[in-house]
Design brief:
320 residues; 12 helices
Length: 320
């Protein structure tokens, strides 16, 4: 058996900038790789997670020209943790504005977790602008998926972690954890917001990998990161992503003719595999890789291997 692929060497952006997209929001973006090479856009998770230097390393810098950006309200984008004018459709418009600003005709769209949701929403809105799709940890923001992760389901797998997630919420309000956290995360008391944000964020950090990863947990426990992550994620999920239930699977027909790769861990807790499988059934142009012995995180070895195999393959195809 061949060795698993690993991240490309660390590389610094050749360009960074701030783009005013209106509504009071300014987005941080960076470009890495080789100017003029195969264009790609990376869509981070969360919502509210922001980009990291390691995300740049999912692409061969000699063969790709990659745009990465912090979505509204998170990372280096401003204003931090803002919920105003911050919806799925604002983000779809932001992606298209970035494409137009950079003068790109079509690009590979890469998204994991919430990034897969956003990638699907964008590709179904602008299929003519998408050359390929690479999706990891598919999430369609259905009510069933939200209930599984934030009300009953994953709670049965991690009872001690679920107890910590419930702790900031009064017992009488635990019948609707999403609504209870909404109240805490939008409270006037900033300290109360941060306490709730850390609990929300750590619940995710401690349940996304097959085995515990202290580095992920430490990042999600940091107050500045957690505040944007939890506030924006709860905001989006409270509104079910401003999507009709089942919309992204229903509209998968709009992806016809777009080559794609779907990578999903068998034991992905936040994103049950049945939805990735359903997407594959509805979009047969996509290859489907179900990774045994893996959870949700892109950094788990089997998942990472298939993601880099996908970006390598599409780069090779572009050079033929």
């Amino acid at each position: 058996m061949s060795a698993l692929r690993t991240l490309y060497p660390a590389i610094e952006p050749y360009e960074t900038g701030m783009l005013d997209v209106g509504d009071g929001h300014v987005l941080y973006y960076e470009r890495v790789g080789t100017r003029g090479a195969k264009p790609a856009v990376f869509l981070h998770g969360g919502p509210g997670g922001g980009i990291s230097p390691d995300h740049r390393r999912l692409f061969d810098p000699a063969r790709y020209d990659v745009l990465l950006f912090d979505q509204r309200g998170c990372g280096k984008s401003t204003p931090h943790a803002s919920l105003e004018a911050n919806t799925t459709w604002h983000l779809v418009a932001d992606i298209e504005r970035l494409r137009e600003t950079l003068g790109i005709d079509r690009w590979l769209v890469f998204g994991g977790s919430w990034g897969s949701t956003l990638a699907l929403a964008y590709a179904q809105s602008y299929p003519q602008r998408v050359s390929e799709l690479v999706l990891r940890g598919v999430y369609t923001v259905s009510q069933a998926e939200l209930d599984w992760y934030y009300q009953f389901g994953v709670s049965e797998m991690f009872p001690e972690k679920w107890a910590r997630f419930q702790a900031p919420v009064p017992e009488a309000e635990r019948g609707n954890m999403m609504a209870a956290y909404r109240k805490l995360l939008t409270a006037a008391d900033r300290d109360q917001q941060i306490e709730a944000a850390r609990a929300w964020s750590v619940w995710e950090a401690e349940t996304i990998t097959l085995l515990p990863d202290p580095d992920i947990s430490a990042k999600h426990d940091e107050g500045h990161f957690a505040l944007a992550f939890a506030r924006i994620e709860n905001h989006y999920f409270t509104h079910r992503g401003w999507l009709e239930d089942g919309q992204l699977l229903r509209d998968a027909r709009k992806l016809a003719g777009i080559p794609g790769v779907i990578v999903h861990g068998r034991y992905d807790m936040p994103c049950p595999v049945r939805y990735a499988y359903a997407l594959h059934q509805a979009w047969p142009d996509a290859d489907f890789h179900l990774i045994e012995g893996a959870g949700h995180a892109w950094s788990e070895p089997g998942i990472l291997d298939q993601l880099i195999a996908a970006t390598d393959r599409f780069a090779a195809n572009a050079q033929q």
